[in-house]
Each structure stands twice: as C-alpha cells, then as structure tokens.
Design goal:
Layout: E1 5-6, E2 12-15, E3 18-21, E4 23-24, H1 25-36, H2 42-51, E5 57-59, E6 62-65, H3 67-79, H4 92-109
Antiparallel strand pairs: 1-2, 2-3, 4-6, 5-6
Helix pairs in contact: 1-2
Length: 110
C-alpha cells in the first residue's frame, strides 16, 4: 500500500495517483452529521478508526479518513441491522400446564 502524499492544497492528498479530500476526526464527525442528522462524538469516530471499521490513514501523528470511507461505513451500518423479530408465540404445552394447575387450585379451594 502506498503512503498518502500531501498535496499543495490543505485537505487534499494523493492516494495511488488519485486526489481525494481528507477529513480529520472532528471533520468526519461533522460530515456524518450532515448525512445522518446527528453528530457522533469525535472519540467515537476515532474508535471506529482504531477498530478498523472506518478506513483511515496517518499524516504525521494525525488520523484522517475520506468521504468515501464514511459512506462505506454508514452503508455497512444500514446493512447490518437485523430484521425485526416477530412476537414470541405462547407455547401450547405451557398454557395447558397453567390451566391444569389452576383447575387443581380451584379444586383445593372449593
């Protein structure tokens, strides 16, 4: 993998020959806010980078990501949502046991 090369304009790097805009951790949180309507804490964005869930790279001692990487992360969140589960149905054998116990109790009381 090639190291990103810093371009002449701040926030632009060349990765594998193509120029792309870089986003710092706090800028990435702001971009997610633009897309989703809520702003995650920058510490959360940093943790996603550390876990490898959000592609990132270093320039000096700072971590950066791209808009495309954030789009991929959000798509993976949407794809990972489980389908809603149906309400559990009561088991017939448990219902019958409950009715039998109620009948025995009624027989003891009466």
């Amino acid at each position: 993998m090639h190291s990103p090369q810093i371009g002449r304009m701040p926030g632009i790097v060349s990765v594998n020959g193509s120029r792309t805009e870089t986003l710092s951790v706090s800028a990435a949180a702001a971009y997610i806010h633009e897309l989703k309507g809520h702003r995650p804490n920058p510490a959360t964005v940093f943790r996603w980078m550390q876990q490898g869930r959000l592609h990132s790279f270093h320039i000096g001692r700072r971590k950066f990501t791209t808009r495309a990487a954030i789009q991929q992360l959000l798509e993976s969140f949407n794809a990972a949502k489980p389908a809603p589960q149906a309400e559990p149905q009561p088991r017939a054998d448990v219902a019958e046991a409950g009715e039998a116990a109620a009948a025995r109790i009624a027989g003891l009381e009466g």
